[in-house]
């Protein structure tokens, strides 16, 4: 593998990790909203 190919590979890994982290964060927020909504329904 050339240096360029290695760097491209590392860059792709970083990008996919970053987008995975963002997806996880958004899912966490949605889950928190869902849980809060569920709890408010139970209190009524």
Summary tags:
single chain, 44 residues, mainly alpha, 1 helix, 93% helix, 0% strand
Give a brief rundown of this model.
This protein has one helix at 3-43. The protein has 44 residues and is mainly α.
Helix and strand element order:
H
Chain-averaged pLDDT:
82
- State the helicity in percent bands: over 70%
- Tell me the fraction of residues in β-strands, as a range: under 5%
Strands, count: 0
Class by helix and strand content? mainly alpha
What's the end-to-end separation, in Å? 63 Å
Low-confidence stretches: none
Shape: rod-shaped
Largest β-sheet summary = none
Count of helix runs: 1
Radius of gyration, in Å, reads 19 Å
Write the layout of secondary structure elements.
Elements: H1 3-43
